[in-house]
Design brief:
With about 100 residues, the protein is α/β, with parallel strands linked by helices. It has four helices and four strands; from the N terminus they run βαβαβαβα.
Length: about 100
């Protein structure tokens, strides 16, 4: 029997290109298919078109409507894993989402 490995698709959302590329390179080396977005709106557009296993996002990209983006994303796919990163020393923003 032929087994085909289909890599998990991960969406990396960060408005800082250097950080975005670092996470993308790390995940790609480990066999993940990586899509990137630099804003919450761009991330939502990708989530509407693609089946994503996990979204890794910097908390800044959510802005004041971050809860709305997460809510819409999880409404579309309740199995979407979400990891929120924060470069700030205070975890308040990350915990809020």
């Amino acid at each position: 029997m032929l087994t085909v490995h289909v890599p998990e698709r991960v969406l990396v959302v960060d408005d800082e290109p250097k950080a975005q590329k670092a996470v993308e390179a790390h995940l790609t080396q480990r066999g993940y298919e990586v899509l990137t977005a630099s804003s919450g709106d761009a991330a939502h557009a990708i989530l509407m078109r693609q089946k994503i296993a996990c979204m890794i996002a910097e908390s800044r990209v959510f802005g004041s409507s971050g809860g709305e983006l997460l809510s819409r994303s999880l409404s579309r796919d309740p199995h979407l894993a979400v990891i929120v990163l924060s470069s700030l020393p205070d975890v308040t923003d990350a915990v809020r989402y």
